[in-house]
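Technical note accompanying the year-one report. For the benefit of new consortium partners, we illustrate the data format agreed upon in the data management plan: each record pairs a sequence with a structure-token string. No post-processing was applied to the example shown here.
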Amino acid sequence: MNASRRAGNEGTEPVKVIASSIRKGNIIEREDGQLYVVLTAESFFPGKGTPTTQIDMRRLSDGVKVSDRYKTTEQVERAFVEDQDFSFLYNDDDGYHFMNQASYEQIAVPADTVGDQAQWLQEGMQCILSIFNGVAVGIQLPARVTLEIVETEPVVKGQTASSSYKPAKLSNGARVMVPPHIQTGTRVVIQTEDGAYVERAKD
């Protein structure tokens, strides 16, 4: 039996959720009947006035970007998206190529779907792709990656670990802030969500 055969359509109808629960990669159906993938979703809670959620999204049909502001408790139609396990293979002009862990099918994900998370992708990395009608509309990377520091300022004698962080360049080209005691050649753990330093790698 083909492992990639989709299950029945149970649960594929849009569901109503409150705006503040919307996350990046979700698919929502706006009043125009069109489907949009969420690029960013941020809730604001002013001291006075109504809490709101700002959602930036891209229309699936033609790639047009729009922004909506909702009350945080307002209902939004969220379309059913299937999360599947994929491993990253490589990237080229067609996008970022992943392989389905169950069926070995390959899929190309556009660069703007991957966004700034692309810098953390490593060959063979296990990711979760959100699939809607056979198209990848969102990606979740592992929470942390381990990379080597290839460039940073030398350790200053007498500087303590509690001093302010210093800039460093990682082996993938990304720039991060690290504690003063971290030296070139050190392997460090970085959070993929925001590029923040976590700790010195234990391996």
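Partners are asked to follow this layout when depositing records. Residues 111-114 form the longest helix (4 residues).
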